């Protein structure tokens, strides 16, 4: 039974990742994102929390990740609020 549950979770994860490939945002886990070329904190904030004030989300991402600047490197993994 636990194998069936694990397979179901894995299948759902693959579907989620595949759906996100078309956007500039690639989820690495439920609370992280992998930065892709062209991503900005502003665009990431809009993708992960479209109904919230982007300024507050950007501030939370900066604080959570201890960022000293808004420059992002492709491939970097960011924690999300």
TrEMBL record:
<feature type="domain" description="LysM">
    <location>
        <begin position="31"/>
        <end position="80"/>
    </location>
</feature>
<dbReference type="InterPro" id="IPR018392">
    <property type="entry name" value="LysM"/>
</dbReference>
<dbReference type="Pfam" id="PF01476">
    <property type="entry name" value="LysM"/>
</dbReference>
<protein>
    <submittedName>
        <fullName>LysM peptidoglycan-binding domain-containing protein</fullName>
    </submittedName>
</protein>
<dbReference type="InterPro" id="IPR036779">
    <property type="entry name" value="LysM_dom_sf"/>
</dbReference>
């Amino acid at each position: 039974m636990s194998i069936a549950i694990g397979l179901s979770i894995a299948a759902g994860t693959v579907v989620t990742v595949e759906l996100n490939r078309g956007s500039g945002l690639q989820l690495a886990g439920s609370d992280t994102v992998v930065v892709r070329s062209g991503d900005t904190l502003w665009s990431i904030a809009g993708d992960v929390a479209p109904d919230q004030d982007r300024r507050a989300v950007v501030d939370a991402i900066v604080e959570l990740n201890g960022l000293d600047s808004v420059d992002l490197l492709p491939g970097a993994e960011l924690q999300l609020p």
